[in-house]
Amino acid sequence: MRLRMNRTQLLPVAFLVLLSAICKARPADRTPHDLSNTVYQVGTQTILDLVVDKLNRLQQEMDELKQQQIITLETREGTYSDTTSIHRIVGPAPLDCHEVRRREPRAVSGVYMIKPRGQFDALPIYCEMDKEGYGWTVFQRRMDGSEDFNRHWRDYSRGFGNVSSEFWLGNEFLHHLTMQYNYILRVEVTDWFNRKYIADYSGFEVDSKRNDFRMTIEEFLGGNATDALTYHSGSKFTTTDKDNDDSEGVNCAVVHHGGWWFQACDRSNLNGLYYQDGTYGGEWDDGIEWKETDGPPFYSYKATKMMLRPWE
Ligand SMILES: *[C@@H]1O[C@H](CO)[C@@H](O)[C@H](O)[C@H]1NC(C)=O
Ligand SMILES: *[C@@H]1O[C@H](CO)[C@@H](O)[C@H](O)[C@H]1NC(C)=O
Known about the structure:
Blueprint: H1 2-25, H2 35-79, E1 86-87, H3 97-103, E2 110-114, E3 123-129, E4 135-142, H4 153-158, E5 160-161, E6 167-168, H5 171-178, E7 183-190, E8 196-206, E9 215-216, E10 219-222, H6 252-256, E11 268-269, E12 289-290, E13 303-310
Parallel strand pairs: 1-2
Antiparallel strand pairs: 2-3, 3-4, 4-6, 4-13, 5-6, 7-8, 7-13, 8-9, 8-10, 11-12
Bound molecules: 2-acetamido-2-deoxy-beta-D-glucopyranose (2 copies).
């Protein structure tokens, strides 16, 4: 990592050297009547502009990289402090849980160190190994209401919670992860009779921070849950302190009490409030919501899981 930072810092220096070389090469002593000289000067000016432009962009990128590094370190120290039960795997950190399963076919469900491309450090991630031989990278889980999901943009960006119980892995991580392959998203919701329902989607992708972590999916592949997510495809992420939804007048995250890819406002929000026993009252459906067409209007699920594996 130290090497990478040094290289990044060296780039602007290299451009400064190039810049000064170009300035020196500029022929200031010739008369402006010389046509070829005019052309040459225009050319130089254009190059100078390009270099300055590039320098600015590099500076911006460097700031972002630094910010990301800080976020990663904070995440490692603050959020995923439960590192007692991490499963070891020989060799470099896998890109996702699917790779864990591919390298170790007998690997069991649990926490592994995972490092997607573009991510600075490996992070402890919960992997679910299913009976079909797939390894799913779990990025959201609710199970007992122990974690507060009514949080700000920063928390949703870097992730929060405990990978061994309730957590959100973080939008930054989700972005890096979903850039790697074409991922299938599996949503799993469990009601208060312990009936489990699933919904699968292809082409799940989370855009960069610059585009406010916009989420897209290609297609609802089926399952025995309703499709409550296609409505949200193409939406940016919204939190109580960052309103990116299409609703006029209200911030959906404020009234639904959790960060999500709200539109105007929702068919689903698995990051809502945890209501014991499912049904609840109130003005807004701010529970753990996955709309069933014929279900009770305000129903909050007992447990949820959102996880990814590459399409193959
Ligand atoms: C994380 O959750 C597990 C399981 O509930 C628990 O044993 C552990 O103490 C938790 N760790 C932290 C840091 O809260
Ligand atoms: C829904 O499908 C899943 C996966 O096939 C299955 O495990 C679950 O039991 C089904 N749920 C119900 C309520 O039938």
